Each structure stands twice: as C-alpha cells, then as structure tokens.
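Chapter review: from sequence to fold.
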Amino acid sequence: MSAYEALAGVYDALTEDVGYERRADYLEKLFQKSRIPVHTVLDLACGTGGMTSVLTERGYELIGVDQSPDMLAAAQEKAAGLAGIPPVFICQSMPDLDLYGTVDAAICCLDSINYLTSPKDVQRTFQRLHLFIAPGGMLIFDILSPGRLQSLDGQVFLDEREDVYCVWRSSFEKRSGICSYWMDIFTRREDGCWSRAGEEHRQRAYAVDELRAWLLEAGFDRIRTYGDCRMSGPKEDAQRIYFSAIRDKG
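The token string follows.
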C-alpha cells in the first residue's frame, strides 16, 4: 500500500490536537511582521487541507498542493461549502512544484520538509518555491529538529479513537539521519469488524545551518528561525523550528 492511502481516511481523527486555528494565528503574525501584503497563499504539502480550510475562511485565496491523491480527495471534500474563494488543489510532489502564476506567500506546515529525505529534493523545492513566490513574497515552513527525530528511536506510540486505532513504531539511523515510522492502522467497518492496513513513512533530520544555506542559494534572504509558534528564536532543545524567508526582488 502506498504511503497515505490508508492514513488519508483517518488522518483528521488522529490529528485532532494539531491546533490549526492556533497555528494559523501564528502564520498571520509572521505575515504581519514582514509587512508584506498577503492575499494569495500556497499551502505546500497541504495533506487533508486542514490549514488550507482555515486560511480560506480567513479571507485568503489558497492553492493546496500535495502528492497524495487520497489526501487531496479528503481536502477537496473538506473545502466544499467553505466561506471565501474556493481553494484550488493540485496533485504534485514538492520538488516538481509547477504553478500557473505566483503567490504572495507559501507555507509548508507540520514538518513536511522533513519528508524530503534527499537533500537535493529540498534544494530543488526551494528553487521551485523561489520561482512561484512573487518577488518580495514570503516563505514559512517548520521542521522537526534533529534532536527530536533522534529521540524517537525505538519509540512505540498508540493512538486510539472510537473507530480508529493506530500503532506506530519508529527507528532513527544516526548515520543517514533518517527516521522511519511503521504504522499499523485499524479502522472499524460498518459491520463492526476491523480492517488493518500498514504504511511506512520516513523523515530526514536537517540542520538549521544547511537549510539556511540552501535558502540563500535559491534566492531567499531575511531568513529567520523561531521556536514552535513563538516570535523568539528556538531554544537549544527545541523540538519544532519555524523558518521564515523573503524571496529576493531580483
């Protein structure tokens, strides 16, 4: 089974504590801090469209991009009937981003950059974002810190809802910086029986300095890092780190 095929149908149930409204508040604070007028927003790796929907209802014009058709189908369903301009959804991978025009800002939430396990794919993604963010526009993304990913080595997590039960195990390879997750997802069917599906997901640890260097190479400047939903810099033991950057006007 391909990644996200089983997860797409239960993702929202398993991520009820993400806090999209709170994170959207934080994104808007960063928009305002930059003093850049933001109307059109790219939600890269939008998943089931949680953030896409929140920002749409706040008056932004959204483009949601994700490489999983199953996740996009859930996002499209969620977006039906939203107040505001209906978002546009496109099925693409991050390194192959190809839009029909530019946006004022791009966001990439919930450590999606970590899912690019090839440094070349991260560099290519930054280059594509530079192409489709308007000159002077803004990029915001967050990562799980190397320390956080390393701490997941050997961990087993259980997540239970009324009709969903998920068990996932993680393993971190220090040499490669890859954290692998093996997920067993159980869902209750209408007849009361349970179905089981398995998926594997992988993330790579990236240092702040190398991401900053790749952003500079791609043509971004005014690069800032922050703690999780904080307006101050990340602490040494930060688990999630936010980046903001401005696309040069050249």
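Two observations follow directly from the output. The helical segments are 11-14, 20-34, 50-57, 69-79, 119-132, 146-151, 208-218. Residues 65 and 147 are 28 Å apart (CA to CA).
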